[in-house]
Each structure stands twice: as C-alpha cells, then as structure tokens.
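agent: user wants the full assembly modeled, not chains individually. Plan: 1) parse entity lines 2) check alphabet per entity 3) run joint structure prediction 4) return tokens. Steps 1-2 passed, four entities, 416 residues total. Proceeding.
--- entities ---
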Amino acid sequence: MAKTDTKLRILESAEQLFATHGFTHTSLRQITTEANVNLASVNYHFGSKKSLIQSVLKRYLEIYMPLLHQNLNQIAPQKNEIEPVLQAFIKPLFELNKLGKQSPRNFMIMIGRGYSETQGHLRKYIVSEYGETVLLITHKFANALPNISAQELFWRLHFALGALVFVMSSSSALEEIAEADYAESATTEKIVNKIVPFLAAGLSCKSQ
Amino acid sequence: MAKTDTKLRILESAEQLFATHGFTHTSLRQITTEANVNLASVNYHFGSKKSLIQSVLKRYLEIYMPLLHQNLNQIAPQKNEIEPVLQAFIKPLFELNKLGKQSPRNFMIMIGRGYSETQGHLRKYIVSEYGETVLLITHKFANALPNISAQELFWRLHFALGALVFVMSSSSALEEIAEADYAESATTEKIVNKIVPFLAAGLSCKSQ
DNA sequence: CAAACTTTCAAACGGTTGTTTAAAATTTAT
DNA sequence: ATAAATTTTAAACAACCGTTTGAAAGTTTG
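--- prediction returned ---
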C-alpha cells in the first residue's frame, strides 16, 4: 500500500474547502492541490465528486446521528420544556471536537450548505439512513409541545431549521460582520448558545 | 429601437431562474434561452453576469426599501411589542405582487441566496445604498426590545431572516408535504401568518 | 525473485462557463 | 433618403470543470 493516508488527506482537505467555499465552488483541483495528492486520485478512491461529498458528510453523520439518538432517548422533556430537546442536538455536536478543532463548525456549515445546495438530496439521505432517529426527533418535540397541532409543529420545526441552516451557511460572513461591528469573536459555540433560547421561544410560542 | 423589451425579458427570466436554482447554478445560456434573446445581449445590456445579478436585486430593492422605510416610520412600537415591527416588513413585501404573482417569494429567496452566495456583497450594497433604512430598522427593533444588546439583536435578526428565507425558498416542497400530510393548503400568506408569532417570540425572548 | 495486484501520475478528453468579436440588422437623426 | 448610432446575431474565445486513460511506480503475495 502506497501512501495509505491519501484517502484521509482528500477527506480532510475537502471538508475544509467545502465548509469555507461550498460544494459547487470547490473544485477537485483545489482539493487535490491542498491535499498534495494527484487529481485522479479522487476519482480512484471515491468514484466521483458527488460521492466524495457524500463521504465527507457521512464521516460526521455516522458519529453524530447515533449520539443524537442516544441523547434524545435519555431525556423526558416536561411540558413546554423545549430546551432539553434542543440541547440533545447541541451536545453531540461538540463531541465532534475529537475529530478536529473545527469539526463542529464544519459539520454544521456543511449540513446547512447541503440543504440549500444539494436540492434535498441530503435530506432524503438522512431520512432513508436515519429514519428511526428522525421519528424520535418529531416524537420528542411533540411530547414537549403537546398543545400545538401536528401541522403547526411541522412548520415551526422548519422555521427553526431555517434559522439554523441560514446562520450556519452564512456564518463566516456573519462572523466577520459581528467581529467588525461589535468587536465580538463569534465562535460556533457562541452562536449556538444564542440561537437555542431564540428557537426555544419560537417553538413554544402561543399561536394565535 | 429594436425589441425594447430585451432588457426586461432578461431581468424577468434571470429572476425566475435565480430564485429557483441560485445565482451560480444559473447560466447565462439558460437565461437567454428562457428569455428568447441572444446570449451576447446580457453582456451588451448589463456588462457582466455579476452586474446582472445586481440589477435583478436592485429592481426589487428600489421598490421595497422605500416602502419599508415608510412603514417603519409610521409605527411607534411599545416595549416588547415586536409584531408591529415585523408587519412593517411583511406589508410592503406583498406590494411586490404588483410586479408579478411570484415576486414576493422570488425577492425573499434571492435575498437569502444573496447572503450565502455572494460573500456579503449584497449586505454591503444594502448598507451603502439604504444605510438610513438599515439604521431605522435597528432603531425600531431596539426601541421595541430595549433589554437586549446590539450584538444580541444582530444575531436574532439574522436568525429571523434565516427562518423566513429558508421557509420561502423551500415553500413549494413544504407546501406539498403539508398538503399531503395535513390536508392544508399552504399559501405564502398563510406561512407568513404562522411565522410572525414564531419570530416575535424568538426575537423578544429572555436571553440567559 | 517473479507474478499479481494496488496505487500514483501526467496527460488528455469532452463539456460547460462567461466573455468577446465583428458583421448584420434595425432604429434614429440629419 | 442617407448617414449615424444602436441593437442583434452567430461564431469563436480562453478558462475551467469532472472524468478517463494507460503507462509507471509501488506493494503484496506465491
């Protein structure tokens, strides 16, 4: 085996570039240059660019989704106590720190980009691969918010997802503005801590 | 003058395609084919693709921003009364219906895409061109929410923008699911009516 | 060592992109 | 009507993209 780390080098360079510039704005030539490997090795090891994107996302989903499932199972949310449910999403996110310092941030940005760039392919993949966890998610939210109807919950979860996805996909730009205008270093952790109360309030608001 | 409507035809086709597929995923050939004009006419009338994007956005901003300014000036929000401020954004949005049935939706989606795709160029343009209105926005929100800091407001406004934009951009898909699962016809106006209380609660939540 | 297999590499492929060119067509002005 | 200015057109441009190729290099196996 020659250069056993070629695959890993590609994955790591791709992740960083995908998170920074998006999937479509990142070329295989950028990735292979950054990774110091030959251009053709992406197609040799992954088959195609599409498959590389899936592999990069899969690397995190395989860690994150079981942890999320586990966390969701460990909570028994009180009525209108929505923050524990949201924390079940946040806690395993920062366990990705083990993989790399920027892993939580890169993962969130890529999830956000995956929703707006891949035309729903990511969503379908998650539902097909982690359908049980997706069911558990809606179940826990419905338990915590028994007063609102199923369709109201449907919309609110998508409002919440939208807020998260948008902020993450434009996080680098927003961080720059925040740092320039408010002299505030805006780490992923800080943004997440700010958005949780926001989403909790919105999700559990009284509909009129 | 030969075919006086060439410029307009390009603008309208570009708008529809930008809203549906994003700026970078839409080629000039798609636009000119859809508009039934020659490929080179984009560069002749607009100079470049970048400039075309700006023109498409400008067409709506020139109508929307003065209306927003006017609406914001007409309100005097009470403390923690955030819904009137949100309505000042919503009302002029639906005045864009005069330009075309899908104009409000297209405008929102493009604003959202402009934030995540153009690397902050859109925001800089809005701030430089409509700085007064931007100031008025933060002023009215700050008045309605005197307890939260400027940077906290900055983030919450972007959370709100994200929720709105995400739901609008995926509204067609979400409408299908909603109609299939909950037998609920989901018009843009209905979605807006659902999201306003959500955003109001999130924006005025107690930060911890 | 030699054969079989895996991985790397430079080069080229076909395709798409935004942009430019220069002639043709059309409109406007004298 | 003739000249000037504007607009449209087809064609080509250079640059980039993801992917494929086939030979070279490296590694593992018999």
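agent: reporting back. Residues 1-3, 27-29, 39-40, 42-43, 48-49 of chain B lie near DNA strand C (CB under 10 Å from a C1'). Residues 49-73 of chain B form the longest helix (25 residues).
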